[in-house]
Design brief:
6-stranded mixed beta sheet, 5-stranded parallel beta sheet
Length: 549
């Protein structure tokens, strides 16, 4: 993303040593002879404003500044190797974003920009969005259009990979007040929508919480609000438009990418939320491996053209996924692979049924959804940066932030789990606890127009949807109860603790096709089933009992 800078006072290139043989004026850059006689115009006013250095990856670059065709000053940080690419790549990129270049002078322009040296400022660069590592523990969060930092004395510039989507999608439009009124307020009374907002805000807390990468997958029938929930979450950091309407600018990405492409997307959304729509479009033959790779936080090892080791991308993200089928079904759809607990823990399947849009605030459902979707594309990108800015202002350093976040996370996790919860469920519940902590912080910081009780309740509702059995067999429990409480059934139930040693086993996980589950101990499950009465057992009783398992 090029940054537009208002022009004030003297020429903005004043103090920059222009390479010998060139002259820069308000009319442009000219090639001059030794006697200072102007020979030819190369381009509009353009110059190197600074040299950059990414200390973490030891990558050098340049900040190119120019006056565009409308008279605005712009700048963009680019890796230094672009000055040595074959062809006119750099000239084409600059022309695309407003620099006027004389036809046939593209190579002269590249030679001119590559000739800058001497007393030119050096600044730090960051190749991706997210928290910037600091040996002093200073809090610095990089966004494409600005840097949020405790210490403003050291300038940092965003220097992304070429074609990084975040340069177009992570940006603000409108005000925080407008977003709260038009996007957040309509979420009231809709737990899935409130949860989506809290979950998005939880992504910058991933590093201070020292938690693993993971995701949540909303699945269910089409036209039930899944993409709308994704748009609400996306509007926290960037353009919340429906990707079907504004693919180039929408924060939401599609699953229809290669494994390498998805890893590049993950790196581009570092310390943020990666929203992926339409899981069925992913054409990978091993979707389980895709989940593992996304959750690994590091790119696969690859070789360069000369067989050297290529530098690997890394990331920390939360994933919000949507689709008509569960991730488990996606893994097993070919009929050749079996899903594993580790995959289902990394991307939690949450059935949505008809529970995303509940309260339409007096409007008919269709009009409510269309207005909310439209507003997500008009008011966006203010809540996330506002949340991060408040964090940076309130905490003196990274260690102080981490201490508070981890303490709150422990409290919320304890409230969401039973005393003897199985390790697998504890691990999964941390994802819900993250959303709960973020929701509480955001309410306290006046980023969200909700109460703490509303965000807590929304997290509990979505977690309940994850734990609830979803198979049709649960909707008609009487035959099952008769079987369980028959002589054969009771003998079977009483023998479960001896037969099954794996704590991740659950009655519902053997009956359903969803990943419910990963719940309490085997002994607890057996005891709970034994307490159920075959006479008085109703569908509600059975669902409630199995949800606690």
């Amino acid at each position: 993303m090029s940054v537009v800078i208002p022009i004030k006072g003297a020429h903005p290139w004043s103090g920059i040593p222009v390479p010998e043989g060139y002259q820069i004026t308000p009319d442009g850059v000219f090639r001059v002879e030794s006697n200072n006689k102007v020979r030819e115009k190369i381009a509009g006013p353009v110059w190197v404003g600074a040299f950059t250095h990414d200390k973490l990856n030891n990558i050098y670059g340049v900040v190119i500044r120019w006056i565009d065709r409308k008279g605005d000053e712009q700048e963009r940080a680019l890796s230094a190797d672009i000055l040595h690419e074959q062809g006119n790549t750099l000239a084409q990129r600059l022309a695309r974003i407003g620099l006027k270049i004389t036809n046939g002078k593209e190579q002269q322009l590249i030679k001119y920009l590559g000739s800058f040296e001497g007393e030119i400022p050096w600044i730090s660069s960051a190749p991706r969005v997210g928290w910037l590592d600091s040996v002093h523990g200073r809090l610095t969060y990089v966004l494409p259009d600005r840097i949020i930092a405790t210490d403003q004395s050291e300038r940092v510039v965003f220097q992304p990979e070429q074609h990084s989507p975040t340069t177009r999608t992570i940006r603000p439009q409108g005000t925080l007040d407008a977003w709260q009124d038009q996007v957040a307020q309509p979420c009231r009374g809709n737990p899935f929508l409130i949860f989506a907002v809290c979950y998005a805000l939880a992504s910058p807390l991933l590093k201070p919480a020292r938690l693993e990468i993971g995701g949540i997958h909303f699945y269910g029938l089409t036209s039930r609000g899944k993409t709308t929930a994704a748009q609400v979450a996306a509007s926290v950091f960037g353009c919340g438009a429906d990707p079907s309407d504004a693919a180039e600018h929408a924060y939401i990405q599609k699953w229809n990418a290669t494994g390498n492409g998805l890893q590049a997307l993950a790196a581009a959304h570092n310390d943020g939320l990666l929203v992926l729509d339409e899981i069925h479009t992913c054409d990978s033959k091993d979707f389980g491996a895709v989940i593992y790779n996304l959750a690994s936080g590091i790119e696969k090892t690859r070789l360069t053209k000369d067989s050297g080791m290529k530098e690997r991308r890394t990331w920390r993200i939360l994933v919000l996924s949507t689709g008509e089928i569960s991730s488990r079904q996606k893994i097993e759809e070919e009929g050749q692979r079996k899903s594993h607990g580790g995959q289902l823990l990394r991307l939690l399947d949450i059935p949505t049924h008809d529970e995303i849009i509940v309260d339409t605030h007096g409007m008919d459902a269709g009009s409510f959804v269309q207005k909310l979707k439209r507003d997500c594309g008009e008011h966006f990108g203010t809540a996330g940066p506002g949340f991060i800015e408040t964090i940076v202002q309130r905490f003196p350093d990274a260690s102080a932030l981490s201490a508070v976040v981890m303490r709150e996370l422990e409290t919320c996790e304890r409230l969401l789990t039973l005393p003897e919860t199985a390790p697998e469920q504890q691990r999964a519940s941390r994802r819900f606890a993250q959303a709960k902590v973020a929701g509480r912080f955001a309410c306290e910081y006046s980023i969200l127009p909700f109460t703490r009780e509303e965000t807590d309740s929304a997290v509990r509702a979505v977690m309940k949807a994850w734990t609830a059995p979803t198979s049709p067999i649960v909707c008609a429990p009487h035959k099952l109860c008769k079987l369980l409480f028959s002589g054969t059934g009771r003998a079977f139930v009483s023998g479960i603790p001896k037969m099954i040693k794996c704590a991740s086993w659950s009655v519902t996980s053997r009956m359903t096709y969803s990943c419910s589950p990963l719940m309490a101990s085997t002994r607890q499950r057996a005891a709970m089933i034994q307490k159920m009465s075959p006479v008085n057992c109703t569908s509600t009783d059975f669902s409630s009992a199995t949800a606690r398992m």
